[in-house]
Amino acid sequence: MTEAYFYPLLSHLADGQVYPYVAPLSDDGQPSISPPWVIFSLVSDVSSDVLCGQAEYRVSVQIDVYSLTIEEARSIRDHALEAVKPLAPTEVTKIPGYEPDFRLYRATLEFQVTA
Predict the structure, then answer these.
(1) pLDDT in tens, 9-42
(2) Protein fold of 3-114
(3) Which of 12, 37, 49, 78 could potentially form a cystine with 17 if both were Cys, beta carbons 3.0 to 4.6 Å apart?
């Protein structure tokens, strides 16, 4: 699974402001878009080995939603979870947060997908 696999599942969130790894930045290193936005990252991709090669793999995914309100961030995060349900995510973790540098609330979703 690559970023191109997850993007179509998430692209409708936050009015299409969905990006792998980092939001678009201006020359001064600040986000060049207005909230809300979604960042998704493939944290790891671990393969299981068997005698004849690799059998299955497990991808760890993190989705971060940034918004002006925690309620909006949580709502978009919940929509993100619904969007990836066809992948049968396991070990789902929801984490609230706040980014003081940007004065934005963050709602994080972490999960694993086995294929």
Answers:
(1) 999 999 999 999 999 999 998 899 999 999 999 9
(2) STM4215-like (3.30.2000)
(3) 37
